Request: fold
Amino acid sequence: MMATLLALTVIFTQLSLLAFGGGNTILPEMQRQVVDIHHWMSAQQFGAMFALAQAAPGPNMMIVPLVGWHVAGGAGVLVTSLAKFGPSSLLTGIALHVWERFKDSPWRRIVQAGLVPMTAGLVTASASVITEASAQEWILAGIVVIVALTTTMTRIHPLIVLAAGAVIGLSGIGQI
Amino acid sequence: MAISASPDIDERDTPTSTELFTGFLFLGLIGFGGVLPLARRMVVEERRWLSGEEFTDLLGLCQFLPGGNIINMSVAIGLKFRGIVGAFAALLGLIAAPTVIVIALGMLYDRFYDDPHIRHLFAGLAAAAAGLLVSMAIKIVLPLRRKPVAVAIAALCFLAIAILRLPLLPTMLVLAPLSILLTWRLQP
Reply:
């Protein structure tokens, strides 16, 4: 148990400090660690946890306590949450103190612009990894495509498409 | 006092740690999808903790740092008004309710996973969640389409992470400096 909690701490501390461009950029690495390396769950379970986190309110990184809970119960929730939200928050606190000095400097703008293609690549990778885990059957792949198109081209509320996906899934059409 | 369009210093409130906690608790509870626009409404317009410029300024800082924008924002606002205690209060408020809700959902999922109806329901939900992520990726990639260098970096990053399944840390250590260097050299 201690070894597991330690492993969770190391993984989520690293993810915390690498999450440039928001939480969705670190999903592939999170999946690689918890599915491929540590075998704590299957890729499908990881996809389901991502879906639960999307259906729940709050910041979009709620998959973190869920993974912690699945792997190590209450202690897992505590450890993953502290490791994921602690280091980046500490960095925010430190940066807040020196912010005034460098907020107008040209290099800050360059670094920020330089990170945009990284964020684009990482979010695209996340979409690919999560789709691969979640669209095992043609009907599910269909849901992915339709949701992707509707939410790109309209301003429909995410909760409506999540509910629609759940209802189509519940109908059982096209699923074993 | 004259009616002014934006609140000035005298009109703004300084929140207590309890107010920081309850304010962000409320945000955590109602924030589906994007919490940020709701955060701005609460912090700037309703509770008047910050002016519009201060909010944008803090957001710039939070986007520059690793971690979710709204997570960093809660820490920054808490810290600004009530120091470390305030930062804890705001962050805890923001994640407390969503954590409880998501774990309750996870328990339901585990409890009823053997039921085919529940399994089908969650499969549909997961597919829809994947679709939302695909849409988000499209919206981030499309603005880059006239910048070949940015597209190349994004494609390299996608190849390394999604196809080759390389670890994130070495990938970022190579690609991030390269991307920043190219942005710097090629800027108009």
Observations:
- The radius of gyration of chain A is 18 Å.
- Chain A touches chain B through 103 residues (CB under 8 Å).
- Chain A has seven helices and no strands.
